[in-house]
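step 4 of 6: structure.
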Amino acid sequence: METTLVLLKPDCVAGRKVGEVIRRFEEADFQIRGCKMFTLGGELLKEHYGHLVEKSFFPELAAFMQSTPVVALALAGDHAVERVRVLIGPTDSKKADKGTVRGDFGVDVMVNIVHASDSNENAALELKRFFAPGELFDYAMRYTTTPAS
Ligand code: IDP
Ligand code: MG
């Protein structure tokens, strides 16, 4: 079992796709260990996208990422880091297959619905960045719903 960090970006929030995207993660057997909504502050954003701060598109990316609050999710599951990246598709929404989150809902390479950690090392750093220890939960799944027929 691994835990990975997902951010539902402003296009997801503004486009009212939060429920649909979380539904897909739950359907794929991921357990929500943490969930919170907040506006990304400038410093946090620079830390999170540290590999991109020197790029010419960074100001545009920052404006996009701060245009609405985002929703952070900590998702646990088997091979969570890799499986979530497969579910969301590649960075450029236009190159993402239909059936992936970005392929179905993303606009382009910047406006692409979700962030997800790309390695176990980054997942650990990003979970720490966005969740305080008391905001991540471990719980047993004792009660489940009956599947609708
Ligand atoms: P990832 O989100 O698939 O891991 P990264 O290369 O880490 O992709 O880039 C982080 C985010 O920065 C992307 O999800 C996207 O929103 C934005 N981004 C990446 N490349 C570009 C670009 O060429 N133009 C505009 N935005 C970009
Ligand atoms: Mg990345």
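step 5 of 6: annotate
 - The pocket of inosine-5'-diphosphate (ligand 1) is lined by residues 52, 57, 61, 91, 109-110, 112, 115, 118 (CB under 6 Å).
 - The beta strands are 2-8, 31-38, 70-77, 114-116.
step 6 of 6: archive
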